[in-house]
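Folding Task

Wanted — backbone structure
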Amino acid sequence: MPAFVGCNPYEQAYHRGVKLIGATAHYVTEELDDGPIIEQQVLRVSHRDSVNDLKRIGQNVERSTLFQAVKWHVEDRILVHRNKTIVLV
């Protein structure tokens, strides 16, 4: 559910002056980016961060978010009810 779609989302975010970089991991459904959310994470960024910094930070938060979601799924810690999840942590 990116705020900046299309080509070069991190460049778009940089030029917009974002203060937070985040990622969402969710189950896949027939509707694009509409599945039940498993995990979300955000990190604060600064006006001092370059486009490359935003890419690095974004990739790290994406990796961490996906890792946690897959871990919980494999450990069978997620209950899905309609379009929501309950994560047993």
